[in-house]
Every structure is written in C-alpha cells, then in structure tokens.
Amino acid sequence: MDKIVINIIQKLKNKFPIFGINKIRELTRLIFEISKKEKIDFNNIINQIDETNYEKVKNLLLKRRYPQTYNIVPKDSFYLPDINISQKEQANLNLKDFYPKKVYYTNEVINSELYNRVKILYPKAIFTEIQSLKQFQKENKFSIYEYNRRKENLFLINEKYDFFKPCPCTKNVHCCNYSILNIGYGCLYECSYCFLQGYQNVAGIIFPCNIDEFLDINKIKPLNNNLFDLPRVGSGEFTDSLLFDDITLFSNNIVKFFKENQNIFFEFKTKSTNINNLLKLGGSRNIVISWSVNSEEMIEQNEYCTPKLEERLLAAKQCVQAGFSVGFHFDPVIFYSDWKQGYKKTVNMIFDFIDGKYIKWISIGSLRMPATLKKVIENRFSENEILDEELLLAYDGKLRYESTKRIEIYKYLSEQIKFHNSSIVVYLCMEDSNVWNLSKFKK
C-alpha cells in the first residue's frame, strides 16, 4: 500500500478511535482525493476537521470533494472504494518499436501467411506452441503487472467465435446499431482512460490468422441504421485498427472486400498514422478511416505513446486524397478548466485539414469508465488528473460526469462542428435517450 495512504489511515485512527474499518476506509478515500486534487498536505485536511460524528465528517469531506454535485445527486453516487496503490504497477510510457520476445501460437496457424510473416519479421523471438489461448490463460496468472508487459508477447490463433458481432452497448443507452469486425486484441498505446487495462485478461497482443474466413457477405449481416444511409461495420473495439497493419496486412483483404460490397460502410477506427498500406490500395468512399481525436492538451496528458493531433489529421488528409472517406471520434471528451478552447481548436484544425464533404460522421462521447477501472488508473497513472473531476456512479454502473455537464459538452461541440459544416452527421456515443433529447441530437 502507498505510504501516504498508510499515514492517512493511521492519523484517522488516532483522531477517531471509535470509527470502524469501513468508516476509516471511506474517509481515507475522500482525504486522499482532496489532497491530490487541491495539492495540499493530508495532515492539513484532517487537522481542519472539528466534528466527531461520522456522518458529519463524511458529509463535510464529500462537500469539499464534490462541490458542484454534492447537493444535486444521491449520496450513493459518490464512489468511495478502498485504496491499493503499488508503484510496481506504474505503466511504462516509453514506447519502442514492437518486437515481441515471445510468440505463442496454436498448431492450426502454422500454415497461415501471418504466421510465416511473423517468423520472418521477428527471428529473435522465442516461438512456443500452445494448446489453446483459453488453456494458456488457465495456466498463467494475470494482473496489472502482466498487463504492463503485454508488449513482450504475441499470440497467433484462429478465431472461432467473435469475429463479427453487434457493438456491446451499455444497458439503457441509445444504440447506434454499429457492428464490429474483430481483427485483434490488445494495443501498444498507453491512454490513461483506456478500458482495456481493466478488461484485458491476456498478457499480450493477439492476432487472428484466419480473418479471411469471415470476409463473407453471407456471414456479415450488419444492423439497419437510421442515422446513416448505409449500415455500418467497423474495427477498433479491442485493438487499434491500423497500429499493426504493417505486420498483419489485414487492410489488404478488408479494403478489397468492401470495395466489392459498397452497400455497407466499413470503418477503420484508429489513433495511428500507419496508413502506407491503405495509400497503396486506394480507397472507396464507403470505406471510412476514422481517427479518435482530443484536445492537444488532453492528448499530451492522457494519450501516451500516440501520434500528435496534427499527425493524425495529416494522415486523414492523405487518406481522403487516396479515395477514402474519413470520420472523427471525440471520445472521450475530458472536462478540464480550458476545455472549450481546447476542443474548439481541435474542431478548427479538423476542418483546416479536411473538406467537410469527405467526413462521413463525427461522434461525441464524454469520459466514462466501469467503476472498477478507477483503481487500475490510480495504479498505472498515479499522476493522472482525469480522476480529480467529479465522476459519479451512473445508471449503468459506470463513472460519468453529471448529466447537465455532459449535455453542455455535447451542445457546445456540436455547435462548433455544425458551424463548419451543417450537413455532417454528428451523434452521441454510449448515452441514454434522455441525454440525446436534451442535447438536441436526432436519433
């Protein structure tokens, strides 16, 4: 446990000897967060407490920690888990060229093009046959520490079940009927908010070697979509769509397939500038290369090891010139003191680089996360500031900004986008119908 946390617990026990373990835990959490957010020594906070009644002490601290929402949301909206911080679990933010130390493979992939390409690309890697990925998981422990070392391991398998499926929307949100083509699992980027760090349970990057088996129009049955003139299929849910494309060459067959099936939109979601293969292939307007974007400040503070905003937009411009359409995803929008100016600048930069007629869609989604991810972020990114804001337990069990703040974000960004091009489809990601309506978005 972190030394500061231990000291807070001990000081609270000395000051409030009759408080039980759970009460001390909640107060420790509040004091830890206030100290971090206000950049003040925790002793000063404790010394300022004159109350001895637990509920009064807790409410005093809640009001200080959540000044904007304390009086307008139920008290159970404030998520106060215990604190278990270990310096050993800090993320490694020094991205080097991907060169796995170990390559694990199943027997069924040894005749695949991808397996043989990996053998040539990484001659120094140790290749080990495994019975199955599932069996490997049973026999090997997994923790944040192993997640931090995922770049050392590559798994080559044949996918049997999860290549194509509807987007796993959160319960009770308004669904945009997006469908996912799963082209891999795991990422090299280190984004402080990434859900994979709390979701992934394999210490490595996973490439399916049989993706061509699923590029079959009889297997791809996209959902109808009332936001767009064509149904949408995309990749990038569990990995960056293009980050590994120079290794996998998946874009070769994907682009070819969707050029022949122009009644479907296909989207490559990415933060990468790894577009050389796409430029050689040439595009079609139903194939959309979409970049996740943020304000430059938030990219620098939270999207470690990723290309800068200008680099992403230059790649988008090159893709348009090669015949592709493009899209952009403001997701997650992160609230901070100068958020309006930061995101306005990003919108302006997009339209400086790209003619709006080539932009198929722009989505907006505010910062949100499963509640359990909070402790993972604290361990991997101890200096983060995204957790200092007022993130509340919402209807879906996720931590979110209070709804009026989210609506303000959506209205503002939509107005900035529509100022440049009023015909672009702008939609919300992972939001309920009430927020869609109050934000004045068409469903």
- What proportion of the residues form beta strands (DSSP E)? 15-25%
Radius of gyration: 23 Å
CATH topology grouping of the largest domain: pyruvate-formate lyase- activating enzyme
Shape: globular
The residue ranges in which pLDDT falls below 50 over 5 or more consecutive positions are none
- Overall number of structural domains: 2
Structural class: alpha/beta
Strand order of the largest sheet: 4-5-8-9-10-12-13-17
In the CATH hierarchy, the architecture of the largest domain is Alpha-Beta Horseshoe
CA(first)-CA(last) distance: 47 Å
Number of strands: 17
The CATH class of the largest domain: Alpha Beta
- Percent of residues in helices: 25-40%
Mean residue pLDDT: 93
Largest sheet entry: 8 strands, mixed
Q: In DSSP terms, counting alpha (H) and pi (I) runs of 4 or more, how many helices? A: 17
Chart the SSEs and their pairings:
Layout: H1 3-15, H2 21-38, H3 42-47, H4 54-65, E1 102-105, H5 113-121, E2 126-129, H6 133-139, H7 144-148, E3 153-157, E4 164-166, E5 178-181, E6 190-191, H8 196-199, E7 205-208, E8 232-235, H9 245-248, H10 250-259, E9 265-270, H11 276-281, E10 287-293, H12 296-302, E11 303-304, H13 309-321, E12 325-333, H14 339-353, E13 359-366, E14 368-370, H15 373-380, E15 392-393, E16 398-400, H16 403-420, E17 425-428, H17 433-438
